[in-house]
Write a structure and sequence with these properties.
Aspartate Aminotransferase, domain 1; alpha/beta; 13 helices; Aspartate Aminotransferase, domain 2; 15 strands; 427 residues; four-stranded antiparallel sheet; single chain; 14% strand; 2 domains; seven-stranded mixed sheet
């Protein structure tokens, strides 16, 4: 077991040589008494966002008013799409920004099942984000009654062997849908291998990138991906409830139809024709009038990712998660914690999951300390998962060191017993 002092010195040295350390100062708040490890749920506020939103509100909306649609707003979705495309390995005309992740997932899943009308099998896994599963259940209940959802089960609750995918796919499989990085454990699928397995049966694949976009390199074009959706309020730092994005490979766009035929998906939205005619571009997946204020707030977060470079962020993330993993094994596993993420950093995203029978009360003690300790903000996922989201744009090695030491103290001194078990609405 390495000593606490040894880890402390290592953290300090790694911070000293960190070439991305300056990006930390582009985010608020810069309070050294708060360690924020929940960027996998809601990214921090880029300081640039304040000035940008002030300009959009006071100048574009306040002074230019409706004229800003032609001057600034009509092309905003495409402008942001081109930046997201660079982050997820796609072409600008393959990405649409607008609506939320669930609506985008619904649009693409519906379109895929309609296109694959001779097939009636949907494949997913029990590691997938529950909202995606709810949407699939709704599609089967309300629109595709002859379809079945085939759920692959993880053996360990952490990962899923691709052999299970190979065994379950067949020529009746219309759609395979998975989270690229799993929300609880951070297990990351090999996108290229999965796409190749599915395409042997001409099965379409729909990826959820919500926990991978902005945290790991995503190579949609390189792996011949069909479709994807993702949110922008986690690692992309777009703000609470920020608009989501979707991706459709260029050659599939005119084969898939948006089931929600709103006016912004019309070929001539301002002609006000009474019959719908879909656009012949990725914009066919638009629906209604975009939320300009929330959309505009996304850009500073995207710019910071692009300035840092997703490959550089991935290298730092892997170094940070490995450092934290070593500390966890030395100082937390002996105290009843279990490591609930893949052991190899190559096979996980940018968050770590720990399990403990007192996981919820431990997380409460971290967030609301009663003994003058720093505030540390992770998140909790039932029944006993504490997720530690590492955002290399703003998290330091020293913060990770202090987090593990704080968790150790909470358990050794039984500080968690000072907290009740009442679960708050948002965890």
């Amino acid at each position: 077991m390495d000593s606490i002092e040894s880890f402390k010195n290592q953290a300090g040295e790694l911070d000293r040589i960190d070439t991305l350390s300056a990006f930390r100062y582009h985010f608020a708040p810069q309070d050294e008494q708060i360690i924020y490890l929940d960027g996998n749920s809601l990214g921090k506020l880029p300081i640039r966002t304040n000035a940008l939103l002030h300009k959009v509100v006071t100048e574009q909306w306040g002074q230019r008013m409706i004229r800003s649609w032609n001057e600034n707003w009509m092309g905003l979705s495409q402008h942001l799409s081109s930046k997201i495309a660079r982050i997820i390995g796609a072409e600008p005309d393959e990405v649409f920004v607008g609506d939320n992740t669930s609506v985008n997932f619904y649009k693409l899943a519906f379109a895929a099942l309609k296109f694959q009308k001779e097939r009636n099998k949907i494949v997913t896994d029990n590691l997938n984000f529950p909202s995606d599963l709810y949407l699939l259940q709704g599609l089967v209940s309300h629109h595709f009654a002859d379809h079945s959802i085939n759920m692959m089960l993880s053996d360990d609750g952490i990962s899923l062997n691709t052999k299970k995918i190979e065994e379950i796919l067949d020529h009746k499989t219309a759609l395979l849908t998975l989270s690229h990085v799993v929300f609880k454990s951070a297990f990351m699928y090999d996108m290229g291998i999965v796409n190749e397995l599915a395409h042997k049966y001409n099965t379409l694949v729909l990826w959820d990138l919500s926990h991978s976009g902005g945290s790991v390199p995503v190579r949609l074009n390189e792996t011949n991906a069909d479709m994807a959706v993702g949110c922008t309020y986690k690692y992309l730092n777009g703000g609470p409830g920020a608009p989501a994005y979707l991706y459709v490979r260029k050659d599939l766009q005119e084969k898939l139809f948006n089931p929600i035929q709103g006016w912004f998906g019309h070929n001539e939205p301002f002609a006000f024709n009474l019959d719908y005619k879909a656009r012949r571009s990725i914009e066919r997946f638009a629906v209604g009038t975009p939320g300009i204020l929330s959309m505009a707030a996304m850009e500073p977060g995207l710019d910071l990712i692009l300035e840092a470079g997703i490959e550089n962020l991935r290298l730092k993330s892997m170094a940070q998660s490995t450092f934290m993993q070593q500390m966890i094994y030395s100082h937390l596993i002996p105290l009843g914690f279990s490591f609930a993420s893949p052991e190899d950093s190559q096979h996980r995203g940018s968050h770590l999951s720990l399990q403990h029978s007192e996981g919820y009360r431990i997380s409460k003690a971290m967030i609301s300390p009663k003994v003058g300790s720093p505030i540390i903000i992770p998140d909790f996922r039932p029944p006993n998962n504490i997720r530690l989201g590492i955002a290399p744009l703003y998290n330091t090695f020293t913060e990770l060191f202090e987090t593990v030491i704080r968790m150790r103290t909470i358990v050794v001194e039984e500080q968690y017993k000072l907290y009740n078990e009442t679960v708050e609405e948002v965890t």
